[in-house]
Amino acid sequence: DTGVSQDPRHKITKRGQNVTFRCDPISEHNRLYWYRQTLGQGPEFLTYFQNEAQLEKSRLLSNRFSAERPKGSFSTLEIQRTEQGDSAMYLCASSSRQGGTTEAFFGQGTRLTVV
Amino acid sequence: GENVEQHPSTLSVQEGDSAVIKCTYSDSASNYFPWYKQELGKGPQLIIDIRSNVGEKKDQRIAVTLNKTAKHFSLHITETQPEDSAVYFCAASSANFGNEKLTFGTGTRLTIIP
């Protein structure tokens, strides 16, 4: 399968703990996005990278959230001192600015439950 | 920032009938409007998109229309089938190449009644 891969698929953590999610984009895609989706809502933009550069961050991304994309390949999203309000599906997507395609391909998501 | 409203939130249609989902956007600079289908436990999947220089686009049973003046765009599914049952999201973006930052609607749960 050459689609966007996210790991883990599910994560249950206690309030106050740190969690880290990983996203492996489609190999030739240079753009990578993180979105958060709560129940009954559409995905909300968090941040995106072009290669290794983080080009935009939403105001939703508090200082407890940090994202990295070392070497422009996989990306990690870390949430420190988790709160119950962080419970959501975290979606990763990738796209390529080359070849004329603009479609953003989404992964299956990581469902986070903070108890 | 951009605000996208989507209606209806739920829609049930008989198999074989047509379904229409409507969205409005607020930012006149938006120029890219994709539609995503999300099945339970899966990530959103792009089903069709349209750019602001086009008024209508069709792909087999799916079509999208765009009215830039009114800031409306709609998804039309004809000859609906049970596998069309899912949650559908519209989205809008004003980025140069189309999808740097998508603002999504709140979704429409479509149920096809056999």
What's the short story on this structure?
The complex is a heterodimer of chains A (115) and B (114). With 115 residues, chain A is mainly beta. Chain A has strands at 5-7, 10-13, 19-24, 31-37, 44-50, 53-57, 65-68, 75-79, 88-95, 105-106, 110-114.
Description:
The complex is a heterodimer of chains A (115) and B (114). Chain A is built from no helices and eleven strands. In chain A, a hairpin with a 2-residue loop joins β5 (44-50) and β6 (53-57). The model of chain A has no long low-confidence stretch (mean pLDDT 91). Chain A is mainly β and 115 residues long. Chain B contains no helices and eleven strands. In chain B, strands 2, 4, 5, 9, 10 and 11 form a six-stranded mixed sheet that branches. The mean pLDDT of chain B is 93. Chain A binds chain B through residues 4, 31, 33, 35, 40-45, 48, 55-56, 91, 93, 95, 97, 102-109, and chain B through 4, 6, 32, 34, 36, 41-46, 49, 89, 91, 97-107.
The termini of chain A sit apart by 33 Å
Strand content of chain A: over 45%
Low-confidence stretches of chain B: none
Biggest sheet descriptor of chain A: 7 strands, mixed
Report mean pLDDT of chain B, rounded to a whole number: 93
Largest interface, counted by CB within 8 Å of the partner chain's CB: A-B, 25 and 25 residues
Helicity of chain B, as a percent range? under 10%
From the spread of the alpha carbons, the general shape of chain A counts as globular
Category by helix and strand content of chain A: mainly beta
Number of DSSP E strands of chain A: 11
Explain the layout of strands and helices.
The complex is a heterodimer of chains A (115) and B (114).
Chain A: E1 5-7, E2 10-13, E3 19-24, E4 31-37, E5 44-50, E6 53-57, E7 65-68, E8 75-79, E9 88-95, E10 105-106, E11 110-114
Parallel strand pairs in A: 2-11
Antiparallel strand pairs in A: 1-3, 3-8, 4-5, 4-9, 5-6, 7-8, 9-10, 9-11
Chain B: E1 4-7, E2 10-14, E3 19-25, E4 32-38, E5 45-51, E6 56-59, E7 62-67, E8 72-77, E9 86-92, E10 103-104, E11 108-113
Parallel strand pairs in B: 2-11
Antiparallel strand pairs in B: 1-3, 3-8, 4-5, 4-9, 6-7, 7-8, 9-10, 9-11
